[in-house]
Amino acid sequence: MSSLPLQRPIDATQPRILRGSVLFIFLFAAIAGCLSQARPAVAYSGKWAISPVTIDLDRKVRSAVVTIYNQGQGAGEFEVKVTEWSQNDRGEDVQSPTKDIIYFPRFLKIPKNESRIIRLAARTPAVRNEKTYRLIVAELPDRSEPKATGVSFQFQFSIPFFVLPPNKVVKGKILNSGVSGGEVRTTVSNEGNTRFRVDSVTVQGKNLKDEILFEKTITGWYILAGASKVYSVPVPADKCAGLATADITIKARDLILKDTVAMDRAACGKGKQ
Asked: Is residue 262 part of a domain?
């Protein structure tokens, strides 16, 4: 089965060239959490809104409904598809074609000030590990207007879609932390049977007196069951040389992981001052 790299839906704006014009696709930032039909829609750039922003199915909840609202001044058309979502050995998101999910419609048109729904259902439940998918809702160019020669904007929503196993186990572990090339690096491994989302990776550099001389936090992303991800935090060269240790804290919704590494001046490299 062929697979394609998955564009990360995290407040990203990625330009693509389309027949001489620049097309900006905005990927919707999905918020981790359980499915709730009462959850309010999340407005996106004042034109489109979608609800919910995360889908969780299990043996009791076998289907879901997603609603798209048109808050703009004109009608819009969308193409709908579902892809299987996995991660490679570098922790990069990958999407592949799948027939695991029943969904309709495949195309929809939404007049202004109206809404339309997408219905989805899982063909089979998860047994051991959580099954992970993406609901992709992509706005189509307006065929009634002349082809754009400048900048045009279409929206693409990418909604995390999970089919949960009967016994959910959230378990993470830090592996292979160290310092190299002026960066503190750590590998976070998901050893459970369901995803977790790394909200933040924080590195605190301390001297021999246990005083904090450096602190930096970066954002993380989902780590799916059985996958792992390497996070790198650069340390300025002028700070690195005076550090004795670096404390690493990984925060996710359902767990906190910690590790400490010894700082080696020879590994500080020539990072930014």
From this structure: yes
